[in-house]
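hiii so um. not sure if this is the right channel but i have a protein structure encoded as tokens and i wanna go backwards to a sequence. like what aa goes where. can anyone help
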């Protein structure tokens, strides 16, 4: 079987349509379809079947797509071993991150990557819902994702997952707020406050849902934003309270607002680096992952 044909099958398994595979690989849809038919002929079994206006993988196609991942990972590992032997580290690494993760990780990451001038790091800011980060690995070598404490974890058997850190989430209140001087607050203390929230399906919203569940009534959300500095400003001027990630917001809190830990509930979010297994095996990607892990450890 042609490795390039196996790669197309794997792309189809990840992206779901021939049109998306063509877009991602710079081919025409007819060229992709033709090469997939050649692979099917070589395999000797049906790999694709019609589904509406498109196609989907059969059980045999799914099995061969998993094999394609193993093949590409093995090749990447062999190339990485050779690069280590030659003591070289070159290539382009595409990194997607969300805003608040960038604040606490990217400056230190760039400092660490100065040691590898032949690795080109291309970054792109992507902030999506908790369940939408996994799909980004098709277009990026590394995706920095976050998920809430206790949130359901999707099947990631096709992904390489690197845990970076758990970031506690605190309640942010104005300095003159009645709760600002407390060492910690309970859900009962804060549930009836006006809340500055984030869009639904984001990790901080899931934490606020847990707060509501424990308090026995819904939080009143008066404004939603993904931009933490805006949420901090609204808290500072007394518009409401908010759940804010500690490492991200603490440098801006002094003299503006107070961060108070929540008692009786596990409030936090997990930051993870997601990659395709074959890309994670590349030496250049591995060095960036190692640098991210080292930077996260400093927090």
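sure thing!! here u go:
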């Amino acid at each position: 079987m042609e490795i390039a044909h196996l790669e197309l099958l794997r792309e189809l398994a990840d992206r779901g349509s021939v049109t998306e595979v063509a877009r991602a690989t710079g081919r025409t849809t007819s060229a992709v379809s033709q090469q997939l038919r050649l692979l099917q002929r070589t395999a000797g079994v049906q790999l694709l079947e019609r589904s509406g206006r498109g196609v989907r993988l059969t059980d045999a196609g799914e099995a061969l797509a998993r094999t394609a991942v193993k093949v590409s990972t093995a090749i990447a590992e062999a190339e990485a071993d050779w690069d280590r032997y030659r003591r070289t580290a070159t290539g382009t690494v595409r990194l997607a991150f969300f805003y608040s993760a960038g604040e606490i990780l990217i400056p230190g990451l760039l400092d660490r990557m100065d040691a590898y001038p032949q690795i080109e790091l291309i970054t792109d800011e992507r902030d999506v819902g908790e369940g939408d980060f996994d799909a980004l690995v098709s277009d990026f070598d590394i995706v920095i994702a976050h998920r809430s404490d206790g949130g359901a974890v999707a099947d990631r058997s096709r992904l390489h997952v690197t845990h970076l850190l758990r970031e506690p989430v605190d309640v942010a209140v104005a300095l003159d707020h009645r709760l600002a001087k407390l060492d910690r607050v309970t859900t009962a203390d804060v549930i009836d406050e006006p809340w500055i929230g984030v869009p639904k399906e984001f990790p901080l919203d899931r934490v606020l849902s847990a707060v509501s569940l424990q308090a026995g009534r819904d939080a009143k959300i008066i404004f939603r934003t993904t931009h933490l500095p805006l949420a901090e400003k609204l808290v500072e001027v007394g518009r409401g309270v908010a759940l804010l990630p500690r490492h991200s917001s603490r440098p801006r809190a002094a003299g503006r607002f107070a961060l108070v830990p929540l008692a009786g509930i596990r409030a936090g979010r997990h930051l993870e680096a997601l990659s395709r297994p074959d890309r994670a095996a590349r030496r250049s990607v591995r060095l960036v992952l190692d640098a991210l892990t080292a930077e996260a450890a400093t927090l």
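oh and The longest strand covers residues 160-174.
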